């Protein structure tokens, strides 16, 4: 099986690449600035603003499945238009596509959102992600659009690094008590994405954990896991600032979870070990990927 990860040098992309190579798949990945250090991976420089180059890379790799994780928060051409170019190329060449979207497509007005909910973004980034997933579904009807939430794992995520920096007193900042999301572990997310990529299932899927936590509560869990001084984590309300964006967005992933073998653990489970980690934990320790490779 040959797979292509677009955005393979990013946090999620690197985990997808690691799992694909561990499964013994022929793995290719793209990067914008520099490739990640994975042996045995065919790396391709890619600018998502270049339609011709996108088609060239897909044609050269000829993958069984493509997962697009790439985005740039402030760049409409990359975050909105880039996935459109990828979808057009994948549809033209007949490749399976999984597009990674975000809970940023929602306003927070309804708090809980399942897979049937329509986007109602309130930020430029959310609008770009909503435009991308809408276009992907139109241009590549057989594609899977996977919305996810705050991604954590191995101490390398943005939020984990921020908690460590705040606890060490090397940066200023606030962890908001009213900014609520459903965090997911990067290993669980990668496993679920490969399940979708190696299936024929199309439509919208939610890949998020079952625990709804504020940024501050999540910071306290990280501090407890890593034995940090939680008293150094400042708390505040984002509603009292001028920052744009939804406050309380909870992705309801129950329908998607019923389709998956991978269990999407809650933050309390993967940060504090509360509950059995199941096959996800065993797979991580043994270096296996989900699902098993197929011809």
Short overview:
The chain is an alpha/beta fold and 295 residues long.
Distinctive features:
295 residues, alpha/beta, Rossmann fold, two-stranded parallel ribbon, 37% helix, disordered C terminus
**If helices are DSSP runs of H or I spanning 4 or more residues, what is the number of helices?**
11
Computed CA radius of gyration, to the nearest angstrom: 18 Å
Strand percentage, roughly?
A: 15-25%
Summing up helix and strand content along with how strands pair, one would put the structural category as alpha/beta
Question: For this structure, what is the CATH class of the domain at 2-152 and 185-208 and 251-264 and 275-286?
Answer: Alpha Beta
Order of helices and strands: EHEEHEHHEEHEEHEEEHEEHEEHHH
| Average pLDDT number | 92
- Compute the separation of the termini in Å: 6 Å
Quaternary state of the chains: single chain
User: Looking at the structure, what is the overall shape?
Assistant: globular
**Biggest beta sheet attributes:** 7 strands, parallel
What is the tally of beta strands?
A: 15
Widest sheet: strand ordering: 3-2-1-4-5-7-12
């Amino acid at each position: 099986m040959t797979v292509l990860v677009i955005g393979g040098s990013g946090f999620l992309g690197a985990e997808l690449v690691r799992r694909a190579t561990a499964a013994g798949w022929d793995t290719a990945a793209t990067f914008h600035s520099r490739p990640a250090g994975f042996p045995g991976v065919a790396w391709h420089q890619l600018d998502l603003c270049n339609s011709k180059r996108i088609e060239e890379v897909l044609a050269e790799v000829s993958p069984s499945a493509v997962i697009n994780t790439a985005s740039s928060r402030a760049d409409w051409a990359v975050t909105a238009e880039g996935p459109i170019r990828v979808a057009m190329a994948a549809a033209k060449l007949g490749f399976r596509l999984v597009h990674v979207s975000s809970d940023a497509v929602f306003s927070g007005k309804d708090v809980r959102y399942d897979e049937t909910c329509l986007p109602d973004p309130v930020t430029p980034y959310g609008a770009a992600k909503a435009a991308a997933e809408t276009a992907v579904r139109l241009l590549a009807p057989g594609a899977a659009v996977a919305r996810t939430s705050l991604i954590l794992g191995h101490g390398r995520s943005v939020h984990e690094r921020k908690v460590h920096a705040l606890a060490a007193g090397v940066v200023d900042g606030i962890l908001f008590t009213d900014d609520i999301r459903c965090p997911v572990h990067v290993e669980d997310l990668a496993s679920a994405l490969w399940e979708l990529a190696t299936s024929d299932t199309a439509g919208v899927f939610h890949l998020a954990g079952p625990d709804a936590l504020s940024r501050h509560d999540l910071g306290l869990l990280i501090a407890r896991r890593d034995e940090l001084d939680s008293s150094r984590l400042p708390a505040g309300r984002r509603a009292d600032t001028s920052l744009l964006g939804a406050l309380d967005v909870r992705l309801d992933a129950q329908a998607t979870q019923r389709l998956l073998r991978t269990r999407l653990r809650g933050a309390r489970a993967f940060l504090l070990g509360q509950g059995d980690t199941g096959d996800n934990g065993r797979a991580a320790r043994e270096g296996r990927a989900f699902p098993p490779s197929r011809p």
